[in-house]
Amino acid sequence: MTRTLLAAGVAFAAAFAMGGLGAHQGLAQSAQFKGWEAISKELSTRIAPKDRPLHLDQFLPAASMDELLGTWSTFGTEHSFRNGVPNALNLMIWHVTLSRFAHEVGQSCTTPRLALHPRFIATLQRLCAWPAAEAKDEGVLLDFWTSVMGHDASVDEYVGWRDFFLREYRERPSAETVAAMTLAVTMNPRFLLHR
Amino acid sequence: MASFTRRGFIKLGTLGAGTILLPGLGAAEVPGPEQEPHFFLLIVLDGGADPSYMFDARPLSMTAAGKIQNYLGEEPGVWTGRNGQSTLATRLVAPLAPFRDRFSVLNGVYMTPSFDGHLQNMNFLFSGSPFGGDSFIPHLNAAETGRRPGSLDAVLPTPPVFVNVSNHSGVVTLEPNSLQQLAERLRQAAPTRADDRIGQFIRSRVMANAGGEGRMAAGARLMLSALDQAPDVHRKLAALRTPKPDMSQEAQTVALIAECFRLMLSRSAIYVLREQFDVHDADQAKQQPKLFTNAVQKIAGLFRGLVDTPFDAKRSMFDVTTVMVASEFGRTMRAPDMHIANTGTNHNQYANSVLLGGKGIRSGLVVGASDLAHEKARPSKAHLAMDPVLEKVMGRPIDLATLQTRSDQPDSFDIQNHLTISSVVNTLYAMFSVPRSRYRPIGRNLPEAPVLQGLLT
Fold this sequence. Notes:
The structure holds two protein chains of two kinds.
Chain A: H1 2-19, H2 36-47, E1 71-75, E2 78-82, H3 88-107, H4 118-127, H5 138-149, H6 155-168, H7 174-186, H8 189-192
Antiparallel strand pairs in A: 1-2
Chain B: H1 6-18, E1 39-45, H2 60-64, E2 77-80, E3 86-89, E4 103-109, H3 118-127, H4 136-139, E5 152-156, E6 171-173, H5 176-188, H6 197-210, H7 215-239, H8 249-262, E7 266-272, H9 282-285, H10 288-308, E8 321-327, E9 330-331, E10 347-348, E11 352-358, E12 366-367, H11 381-386, E13 398-399, E14 404-405, H12 421-431
Helix pairs in contact in B: 1-8, 5-7, 6-7, 8-10
């Protein structure tokens, strides 16, 4: 894991050094955020019952902020996706929003806070036994990961996530761990960015 | 002007001073002003505003001769610059008269000569290419200028302008009406942190995805950059105060811009006027006196706000901000086959007007001019080649070294003899110490567009 991160860091630094790639360059070829509607719908489909969709809006720090997180706009016959390029403001809003959402998922270990569909509830209940051994079962962790991330990420991403929590949150309480796990999945580029 | 009272802006200044007194935000956390603060405000007249309703007017005799529409129906007055050059201006610019020594008028400015579409010319204004590309706005905030970059390249406190640019990731919409709630929530929430376990892990995964080639890697690199700047933006937004809602929307917007500059949240701001100046239809064109009345009042209000809002003990916001007012192009004198009393106007990329003022600008000047100044004026052969039906006024040749309009009537068109938006942007680049490698050419396979040295203080 450490070696992988180190290698990624070196490759990243090399990319900057060789290509002079700054945050302002090559945006046309950059993945953008999937956008508020897409992320809300994905999360709702994955964890909420069909008849009670997840309203992610409740976790936004302020009204109208969803427009800053990637939305479609129309000008005549032109349709463009706006505010989807990651910047310090939209990323900060994503972080605040998803932190609040993750907190509610974590708190659901003790008191149901969100309308969740039965399969996700079953996964969550098993995970909420953390730090007990049964919560650290490969099947439980993979179920939770897939439930939130879907199939957008590589196995390496899952392995990195799993190993981090088994190591760093080994003895932490369940609510804190589940919240952190949720935040780590939802702040992953594979979850937020459109391929 | 009622919405931009001196009291309102003194109130705003007081609010600004209050930001450094917020509990939990010590002096070290709120950035102090730079030694040489310099900001940029771009005010956009969206849709292609007709300069003949402001600082490039025509006499009524020209309307009587059927050459140019005029729904104001009043003889324009003479507006003379400190450089001795004059232009005609309508009474609609009267609210700007108190600031006449704070800005210069640039007339006859060429946009992209080959295209007359909104998008191509707005792209040209921002990027120097009708097809879009890198916008000049982020260049003003780049570290290569030698200044500490603002957290964001620009804030956009109004609905956005439609433009295809590839580097506006740091140009963010931030409207006053949603800001109060956001600031309050952010004061309660902890900023993202890279020094706790989960913060380190999130950053490590973004970094892992940022290596290598491909769109995902490029997006992850942007995320990484954003992640590193996010705590700073969080703290600054939490420290930001907007004035009470009893102030007008425009006054709140000035307040927001001033706060963003003062906190070094952003280097620039883009203010898009809500008035729609694209008046092809006669009924729309007849609304121009009202449209310009509203627009000029807002521009004057923004100027007043910047003048009355202190940046520090010695300087106003206007003193530290370069202000530019521009549209994507001007308009034709009339539409073909319509009566002069009942005509709309089309797009004219050959003669735009730009106002430049504030920090770094020699103000009070009139620079450049468009041709066909009266009904008996004869077009040059160059004009006839470009506009055979004489629908458009065109920028006259100019000596870019002295900024004096030339009197010759060229036989063929050469963009190098004219005042172009590329020269205007390069002049901004010179003021902001943007490296020469960024400077725009006059046109394809042509040399660098000259900096308007005579406009620099």
